[in-house]
Amino acid sequence: MTEPTRTEAAIPLWEVFIRARNGLAHKHVGSLHAPDATLALQAARDLYTRRGEGLSIWVVPSAAITASDPAEKGMMFEPTASKIYRHPTFYEIPDEVGHM
Amino acid sequence: MTSIRVTETPLVTYVLRRADDALVLGHRLSEWCGKAPMMEEEMALANMGLDLIGQARALYTYAGEAEAAGHDEDALAYRRDERAYRNLLLVEQPNGDFAVTMVRQLLYAAYADPYWRAMMSSRDATLAAIAAKAEKETAYHLRHSAEWVVRLGDGTPESHERTARALMTLWPYTGELFETDAVDDAMIEAGIAVDPASLRDTWRATVADVLGRATLTMPADGYMQKGGRSGRHSEHLGHLLTELQYMQRTIPGATW
């Protein structure tokens, strides 16, 4: 990609979420530029569902997302690494239960 | 490669007219490839173009079957001259700026959407099946072009002015949408075609609603251009076909 043009820079960014089938959750698929929510939804349809990927689309202004800071990943995520007892792997599962 | 001559029964002519509308407008949209104002719209224009070219393929195939002279979709698309093309003058008008392209799409889709919906009840089973698919596609083309015309008309002074100019430029080509001749009469009589006169109020209401939201004024119906249905085209179609047909005319039957 080349540098965004002035037009693109002035047009808000949206995050796109697609639900592929009934019963599944909406999944983040990418982002796009659009001047408003209606056109963002249409652009999402045109960009991300061309091969029958979706039954439902959400678009969310990227500015509305509060994200964790990658620089804080030590504090945020590493403490869980040593807490293996949080994984449900210490139970005896009776054979009759089958696959869990 | 020499041109083919099509034996035009009313059914063949009727189907060819719809096929030519779809192919020529689809080709016009394909001309935006690599040049659209933004990537999102690049995809939207190409998607609409592909919908239309898909409709054209089904219609050409059916026209070829109806003619029963061995002409397939490629022969009908690539080996007829300008005067044998039967499309509306509206769809061959050049892309111009983005406003012209979107106004052209709106004026056509506001007609084609109710047209295909009505054609789902055609007594001709093939046309009814094509209509069922085309209607869903055209409904989206109408929504997409309408949303853009509203934003362009009700946008900046420049976008408003350009959209108003596009509307004035294209309006004289809208009379042809509702024209009928002996071919239409025969098809309407047979229960195969819908009478375009029955679509006129819907078309006007749709266009008036969009233009109202776009703060644009609906032009008065003045002199209307016509001739496309009988092969008398504006100077633009010949250039379009030169590009569209070049490869098959140069290397007949080429595939890749």
Describe this structure in words.
The complex is a heterodimer of chains A (100) and B (256). With 100 residues, chain A is of the alpha+beta class. Chain A has one domain: Phenylacetic acid degradation B (Ubiquitin-like (UB roll)). Helix content of chain A is 22%, strand content 20%. Chain A has three helices and three strands. Chain A has helices at 6-10, 37-48, 73-77, and strands at residues 13-19, 27-33, 56-61. Chain A has a three-stranded antiparallel β-sheet, covered by helices on one side. The mean pLDDT of chain A is 88. Chain B has 256 residues and is mostly helical. Chain B contains ten helices and no strands. In chain B, helix 1 packs antiparallel against helix 2 (39-67), helix 2 packs antiparallel against helix 6 and helix 6 (125-153) packs parallel to helix 9 (200-213). The mean pLDDT of chain B is 97. The A-B interface holds A 7-8, 11, 32-36, 38-39, 42-43, 45-47, 50 and B 37-41, 43-44, 47, 140, 143-144, 147-148, 151. Chain B: It comes from Rhodoplanes serenus. Chain B: This is Phenylacetate-CoA oxygenase subunit PaaC. Chain B: InterPro entries: Aromatic_CoA_ox/epox, Ferritin-like, Ferritin-like_SF, PaaA_PaaC, PaaC. Chain B: One of its GO terms (cellular component) is cytosol.
End-to-end C-alpha gap of chain B: 19 Å
Order of helices and strands of chain B: HHHHHHHHHH
Q: In total, how many beta strands of chain B?
A: 0
Q: How much strand content do the residues of chain A show? A: 15-25%
Unreliable spans of chain B: none
Oligomeric state of this protein: heterodimer
Protein name (chain B): Phenylacetate-CoA oxygenase subunit PaaC
Organism (chain B): Rhodoplanes serenus
InterPro entries (chain B): Aromatic_CoA_ox/epox, Ferritin-like, Ferritin-like_SF, PaaA_PaaC, PaaC
Pfam families (chain B): PaaA_PaaC
List keywords for this structure.
heterodimer, A: 100 residues, alpha+beta, Ubiquitin-like (UB roll), three-stranded antiparallel β-sheet, 3 helices, 3 strands, 22% helix, 20% strand, B: 256 residues, mainly alpha, Ferritin, 10 helices, globular, Ferritin-like_SF (chain B), PaaA_PaaC (chain B)
